[in-house]
Amino acid sequence: GAVVSQHPSRVICKSGTSVKIECRSLDFQATTMFWYRQFPKQSLMLMATSNEGSKATYEQGVEKDKFLINHASLTLSTLTVTSAHPEDSSFYICSARLGAHYGYTFGSGTRLTVV
Amino acid sequence: DAKTTQPPSMDCAEGRAANLPCNHSTISGNEYVYWYRQIHSQGPQYIIHGLKNNETNEMASLIITEDRKSSTLILPHATLRDTAVYYCIVRPPPRGSQGNLIFGKGTKLSVKP
């Protein structure tokens, strides 16, 4: 089945630095990937839709200059949290879909802690 | 996308069937019912989806009422590993690889020994 690999699984960074999270589709090509964020004891919230070869589409309230998304190939999308602050500490999850008749596949998530 | 309502939490004894309900009274004719689950600190895992017929796979069964206004996810023999938050999501079939899932609060299922 479709597998989405997400790295790193955990990262701790200092306030003010940037962190890059990678999301790869291992055995299929994904023209579209989705980035979610999940705060403790809350549900997943869609942040942005990543489109291969074009600009990402951000949800209302998500700062595109702070959360940079690059989808340069059909198998890789990256999310960079720029100038991270403690309030950006969260669980970030990516997702992709093989095609019209398949379910969505999620990465294992990245736990970001900004200190 | 249609809104769903799920109980916030449920308990189930290990080895027994877990029946998780979901109300989606405003579902449209072309909207599917998807079920996902999220084990603590992991990404969501696809379980099953259906349109109007009951569905079964190696993980679970999905029973959709005739009027499609509600559904039940059945885990026939729950194990401790099935402890997770279960999300019922209703949405039209995306075209190609487009579309996204909108998550509600789900049901936290606790399987107890």
Could you characterize the architecture of this molecule?
The complex is a heterodimer of chains A (115) and B (113). Chain A is mainly β and 115 residues long. Chain A is built from no helices and eleven strands. Chain A has strands at residues 4-7, 10-13, 19-25, 32-38, 45-51, 57-58, 67-73, 76-81, 90-97, 104-106, 110-114. In chain A, strands 2, 4, 5, 6, 9, 10 and 11 form a seven-stranded mixed sheet that branches. A four-stranded antiparallel sheet of chain A has the order 1-3-8-7, with no helix packed on it. In chain A, a hairpin with a 2-residue loop joins strand 7 and strand 8 (76-81). Chain A is globular, with a radius of gyration of 13 Å. The N and C termini of chain A lie far apart (37 Å). The model of chain A has no long low-confidence stretch (mean pLDDT 92). Chain B has no helices and nine strands. Chain B has strands spanning 9-13, 18-23, 32-38, 45-50, 55-56, 61-64, 70-75, 84-91, 107-112. Chain B is an all-beta fold and 113 residues long. The interface between A and B is medium-sized, with 28 and 25 residues.
Describe what is shown at a glance:
The complex is a heterodimer of chains A (115) and B (113). Chain A has 115 residues and is mainly β.
Beta-strand portion of chain A reads over 45%
Number of strands of chain A: 11
Biggest sheet of chain A, open or closed, and with what strands and sense? Answer: 7 strands, mixed
What is the number of helical segments of chain B per DSSP (H or I, 4+ residues)? 0
Hey, roughly how much beta strand do the residues of chain B contain?
35-45%
Principal-axis shape of chain A equals globular
Helix residue percentage of chain A: under 10%
- As a percent range, the share of helical residues of chain B equals under 10%
Can you give the mean pLDDT of chain A?
92
Radius of gyration of chain B, whole Å: 13 Å
Please identify the structural class of chain A as seen in this structure: mainly beta
One letter per element, helices H and strands E, the order of chain A comes to EEEEEEEEEEE
Instruction: Give the ordered list of helices and strands of chain B.
Output: EEEEEEEEE
- State the largest interface: A-B, 28 and 25 residues
- Global structural class of chain B: mainly beta
Assembly level: heterodimer
Major sheet description of chain B: 5 strands, mixed
**Low-pLDDT sequence parts of chain B:** none
